[in-house]
Design goal:
The chain is an alpha/beta fold. Among the domains are: about 180 residues, Rossmann fold; about 60 residues, no CATH class. About 30% of the residues lie in helices and about 20% in strands. It contains 11 helices and 17 strands. The strands form 4 sheets. A 7-stranded mixed beta sheet has the order 8-7-13-14-15-12-16, covered by helices on one side. Helix 1 runs parallel beside helix 11. The protein is globular and about 65 Å long. The chain binds flavin-adenine dinucleotide. Flavin-adenine dinucleotide binds next to helix 1, helix 8 and helix 11.
């Protein structure tokens, strides 16, 4: 097989790059280790309920960019959707993101906590510089400890950038974001359209079978960066979630919101999702499906979800990315190759930038 570009991975990053190169007349082939395309955004329809499930956890699309919104709309019609996510602390529901109205009673304690914090070094320190301690303890500490499996003050402070205080009248997950929605026929259908006419070989692990592939001008790799270099600096750590699905065939609804985050230590799962709240499912379908997510540390390369936000792993990922610079015509992009949490819009943006660069260079 002789192609211009071999793309490893049929997730959003690989598929966007493949589409853009192919549209400009480059010969591309995509190889994908899993038995389906779409990477982490893959979804499927549960039988017998007919409920659409996001296999790798709920994926809510959002972007502030007009251009990116136009781009994704070429591959799917989108239904506007603003997810409502709540936190259950063991006693009551709270808004997520934290809302100013709810934390106002604790704000006096916040200034006390602030004066005690001298340096913003850890995740916990950073959180306490914006949230009252009571609120941090109730809503963030337990959830974060369960999610990462270590005490939060050992996590990198950058992780706290995702914690914001909402002061608007919009109580959805990403208040005031310009575009928020889901592909009308699901992500699977959107990804099929994006890859239409491009050769995609599934169940093909590039790292195991690269000798079977012929010459090409360039390689775009979207898999884990440590595996690409055979873990020469050691394995990068991830945290993932085991998903346990419950089909309640005689229930109409199982929970009041699409997603509930559990911040109390007693509950072992961290999130519960009821898929029927997402647009696209007929609410009169048979029963409902609820999914509970239990965090764990994976040692299997198929289920790598969140890069581990501590100094050691960030430094190790830098070593790999530096090593990559010595590889000729090899580009590493995407959440696994860059060892970085990327929202879908950021992943698409990065992919578009790389594809444009490749097209400009050749
Ligand atoms: C639990 C979770 C929830 C998320 N929710 C949201 C959300 O609500 N909103 C949002 O905007 N973003 C969300 N994201 C982020 C979103 O998943 C990413 O932006 C997106 O997956 C990035 O796509 P990617 O192509 O870089 O990576 P991936 O989707 O992981 O694609 C990489 C592909 O490469 C393949 N691959 C790896 N190694 C090899 C190999 N050796 N040979 C062949 N193929 C290989 C993999 O099988 C995979 O299909 C979430 C992420 C997680 C983990």
């Amino acid at each position: 097989m002789k192609v211009d570009y071999l793309i490893v991975g049929a997730g959003l990053t690989g598929s966007v790059i493949a589409r853009m190169l192919s549209d400009q007349g480059r010969e591309v082939v995509v190889v994908e280790k899993r038995d389906h395309i779409g990477g982490n955004v893959f979804d499927y329809t549960h039988s017998p309920s007919g409920v659409r499930i996001h296999k790798y956890g709920p994926h809510y699309f959002r972007t502030q960019s007009d251009d990116l919104w136009r781009f994704v709309n070429k591959y799917s019609e989108f239904v506007e959707y603003k997810p409502i996510v709540k936190i259950w602390d063991g006693q009551r529901f709270w808004h997520w993101p934290v809302h100013i109205e709810e934390i106002a009673p604790f704000l006096l304690q916040q200034s006390a906590a602030k004066t005690q914090t001298t340096m913003e070094i850890s995740f916990e320190d950073s959180c306490l510089s914006i949230l009252p301690k009571n609120v941090y303890n109730k809503l963030i500490k337990g959830y974060t400890t369960k999610q990462w499996g270590i005490i939060p003050n050992r996590l990198h402070s950058t992780l706290a950038s995702r914690i914001q205080i909402n002061s608007s009248r919009d109580y959805s997950l990403t208040p005031n974001c310009k575009y928020q929605g889901l592909p009308k026929e699901g992500y699977g259908s959107m990804m099929n359209k994006m890859l239409a006419g491009i050769e995609v070989i599934t169940c093909f692990d590039y790292l195991q079978r690269k000798d079977e592939l012929g010459p090409r001008k360039g390689l775009v790799y979207t898999g884990p960066i440590d595996a690409y270099f055979n873990f020469s600096f050691g394995k990068l750590r991830y945290r993932s979630q085991r998903r346990v699905h419950h089909y309640h065939k005689n229930m109409i609804w199982a929970q009041p919101y699409v997603q509930i985050n559990y911040s109390n230590y007693r509950t072992k799962y961290i999130r519960a999702i009821e898929w029927k709240h997402l647009p696209g499912t007929n609410h009169n379908c048979k029963g409902t499906v609820q999914t509970f997510e239990y965090p764990f540390s994976p040692d299997n390369g198929d289920i790598l979800e969140y890069p581990f936000p501590d100094d050691q792993n960030i430094a190790r990922s830098m070593q790999y990315l530096k090593l990559l610079q010595s590889e000729k015509n090899v580009y590493a992009r995407g959440r696994l190759a860059e060892y970085k949490y990327l929202d879908m819009d950021a992943a698409i943006d990065n992919a578009r930038l790389l594809a444009s660069r490749i097209l400009r260079n050749k």
